[in-house]
From TrEMBL:
Protein name per UniProt: Cobalamin/Fe(3+)-siderophore ABC transporter ATP-binding protein
SMART domains given in the database record: AAA
Keyword Ribosomal protein (UniProt): no
InterPro entries: AAA+_ATPase, ABC_transporter-like_ATP-bd, ABC_transporter-like_CS, P-loop_NTPase, Siderophore_ABC-ATPase
Chief location category: membrane
Start and end residues of each ABC transporter domain: 4-240
GO cellular component term of the entry, any: plasma membrane
Membrane topology annotation: Peripheral membrane protein
Lineage: Bacteria, Bacillati, Bacillota, Bacilli, Bacillales
Record's subcellular location: Cell membrane
GO molecular function: ATP binding; ATP hydrolysis activity
GO terms, biological process: iron ion transport
Keywords: ATP-binding, Cell membrane, Ion transport, Iron, Iron transport, Membrane, Nucleotide-binding, Transport
Length: 276
């Protein structure tokens, strides 16, 4: 297994600081979810963990080594990232896309091997995209396309997978479909998965570990049962809510306050009017 953490990490662009002096430990073999308001720096943290963004200060440590000092190909053998809304070249088939995941394992003169082919086949199989191999990626539905991109990351055969909002733009059924797939990868293969999610209830259901980001800092990190509370949700999102127990999974379930059609109020009004 590979370990991933950050120490005294400060991130930003130019003179602007987005993340200021944070420490993060990603639990091995678990699912970690980053939560926080829009623009708080969740995606920035994820990019830095993948060495796509150089820290202003501090270090990202991958398997005991400063990731900034590692060769790109060595990083890609240990860690895969799926950015938000990746763009596929027009006309590329699913097989051709997933095949690119083997690039870190191949040299200039190394020929395509049986191991490479097996890795691509396995990635297509576990993501249920094998039957789509010859279709172009741009012809797929949103859920199918996301599965194809996840297959690409799996073909890298890394112990750590980072995903930036993997359920964005997907309907509810496809959101669950993608998250179930990631859950199975964690449960069956022991993959360490780190992702950014906006839905707190889905984050609570699938994550073993949650990191809440606010005002350039890590406000809290730990199990969903201790992190997702009315006070923390209000502090992070400036939103009042109740937190109940999910009746199916037993995980925290956030019920936001706000305006809307409330049948309890209607029942109370009817009772007051009829006197029953």
């Amino acid at each position: 297994m590979q370990t991933l953490n950050a120490k005294n990490l400060t991130l930003g662009f130019g003179d602007k600081v987005i993340i200021d002096n944070i420490d993060i430990v990603i639990p091995e073999g678990e699912i970690t979810v980053l939560i926080g308001a829009n623009g708080c720096g969740k995606s920035t943290v994820l990019r830095s963990l993948a060495r796509l963004l150089k820290p202003k200060e501090g270090n990202v440590i991958l398997n005991g080594e400063d990731i900034a000092k590692m060769k790109s190909k060595d990083v890609a053998k240990k860690l895969a990232i799926l950015p938000q809304g990746p763009i596929t070249p027009e006309g590329l088939t699913v097989y051709e896309l997933v095949k690119q995941g083997r690039h870190p394992h191949r040299g200039f003169i190394k020929q395509w091997s049986t191991k490479d082919e097996d890795a691509v086949h396995h990635a297509l199989e576990v993501t249920n995209t094998l039957s789509l191999s010859n279709q172009t990626v741009d012809s797929l539905s949103g859920g199918q396309r996301q599965r194809a991109w996840i297959a690409l990351t799996l073909a890298q055969e890394t112990d750590i997978i980072l995903l930036d909002e993997p359920t964005t733009y997907l309907d509810m059924a496809h959101q669950i479909d993608v998250l179930d797939l990631l859950y199975d990868l964690n449960e069956k293969d022991g993959r360490t998965i780190v992702m950014v999610l906006h839905d707190l209830n889905l984050a609570s259901r699938y994550a073993h570990h949650i990191i809440a980001v606010k005002d350039k800092k890590v406000l809290a990190q730990g199990k969903p049962e201790t992190i997702i509370t009315p006070n923390l949700v209000h502090e992070v999102f400036q939103m009042k809510c109740n937190v109940a127990c999910d009746p199916i999974f037993g995980t925290p379930m956030c019920i936001p306050h706000g305006k809307g059609r409330c049948i309890y109020n209607n029942l109370n009004q009817e009772t007051a009017t009829t006197g029953t």
